[in-house]
Design brief:
- By secondary structure, this protein is mainly α.
- The protein has one domain.
- It contains 16 helices and no strands.
- Helix 11 packs antiparallel against helix 14.
- It is globular and about 70 Å long.
- It starts with a helix and ends with a helix.
């Protein structure tokens, strides 16, 4: 590593002001800070010294995503070979999933960094580090067979209109990863729903067992909206057990199926203080109480679906842990975080149940509350100000 550092230092003058490659300064700086901790220090004035910076915070999120990534890769292969009826070893299943997942990651990072670098060059600034996490989140929340050109287009749209137009990292209103998914859903809905997009290989149908369906659990429930009960089963007709739903052996977006893997990531986020427990707890509370209330009405399968199962299928858990807790787009005040999270949980379940045409409501719920987060904080702060003013008036009397 020291040899690499020396080589970087050797070529660095070419990318500094006056160097022949200065026009690529932003790209070089991004590459250097990706490999090594920046050597910049404050020269004067008082400042806070802390080992926690944006790079370390985002690295923590990446580590927290590792369980969901690894299981998601395995589940890609598992769902594929289940659809073909083939029996494969663990490593054959994992390798198949890895080869399907890797191109999505490469395209996501390449597309997002291209836009980031372009704007950094135009503004003559450093490349923002914010896409470091978004670049891996986007592949985790899309179907495995999404065409790569669609993923690239959605990623560039998310970075351009979700971040750069607002001023870059730290200034964006909406979560960029969710904006990419929203773009795909509304621009190419057939690739984000249905029975053939969640299992690798189902689109072209090669080698698929006759009658096999890759529909998600929520998709099955929504499709039978007029029935009182629905038999939830995988493509081969075998009933789903609660364990299948919790561990993640079900069709769905790559990183969203395993609640166990997501909870392992949540533990790391909470232990390091990177994720907000107030938001996580309130999202689950809002979703559970809303689902429990709808269970009383139970006029269709989505309403009758048990409240505790609503929390472990679809993208609910992933959204609560990794999306709702985004420190930039979420509420900032402690009281505001409770309100923000609770309303996300409520809206997510309502969208699922009230609109069967769109059985996954977490994305829209979080994007909607991203819009209202500043307003929530404003009223919380204003309420504190008014209380203090009242106390001050009473003290002067």
């Amino acid at each position: 590593m020291s040899k690499l550092h020396k080589q970087i230092d050797k070529i660095k003058p070419n990318f500094e002001k006056g160097g022949k490659l200065y026009f690529l300064h932003s790209l070089f700086d991004a590459f250097e800070t990706f490999l090594f901790v920046p050597d910049k220090v404050t020269k004067k004035g008082s400042h806070i010294r802390d080992y926690v910076d944006m790079k370390r915070t985002m690295t923590t999120v990446i580590f927290a995503l590792v369980p969901a990534i690894l299981f998601g890769i395995y589940n890609i292969g598992y769902q594929h070979f289940a659809s073909t009826g083939e029996i494969k070893s663990f490593w054959e299943i994992f390798w198949y999933g890895f080869l399907k997942f890797l191109p999505l990651v490469i395209v996501s990072y390449a597309s997002g960094i291209f836009i980031e670098a372009l704007f950094a060059q135009i503004k003559k600034e450093e490349i923002n580090e914010g896409f470091f996490v978004s670049g891996i989140l986007i592949p985790l929340i899309v179907p495995v067979d999404i065409p790569l050109w669609m993923l690239s287009l959605a990623t560039m749209f998310a970075v351009l209109f979700g971040k750069e137009v607002f001023g870059g990292t730290g200034m964006n209103i909406f979560n960029p990863a969710l904006l990419a998914r929203a773009f795909l859903f509304f621009a190419y809905p057939s690739w984000m729903s249905g029975t053939k997009v969640w299992t690798a290989g189902l689109v072209n149908g090669k080698g698929i067992v006759d009658g096999y369906s890759g529909a998600t659990i929520l998709g099955q429930l929504a499709a039978e909206g007029g029935e009182k009960t629905v038999h939830l089963a995988n493509g081969a007709g075998h009933s789903y057990a609660i364990a299948d739903m919790f561990f993640g052996f079900i069709p769905g977006s790559i990183g969203e199926t395993s609640t166990l893997a997501i909870l392992l990531g949540a533990i790391l986020l909470l232990w390091t203080g990177v994720g907000s427990w107030r938001i996580m707890v309130s999202v689950f509370a809002g979703g559970y109480l809303t689902a429990l209330l709808l269970n009383v009405l139970a006029v269709n399968p989505l309403m009758a679906f048990p409240a505790h199962l609503q929390l472990i299928v679809g993208g609910f858990a992933f959204g609560a842990v990794f999306m709702a807790t985004d420190p930039v787009t979420a509420a900032q005040t402690n009281t505001g975080k409770y309100i923000y999270g609770f309303l996300i949980g409520v809206m997510a379940i309502l969208i699922r149940v009230v609109n069967p045409a769109y059985p996954e409501g977490v994305m829209l719920a979080i994007l909607l509350m991203n819009t209202f987060a500043p307003l929530i904080d404003h009223y919380i702060i204003q309420a504190h100000i008014n209380k203090r003013l009242k106390r001050a008036k009473l003290a002067t009397k």
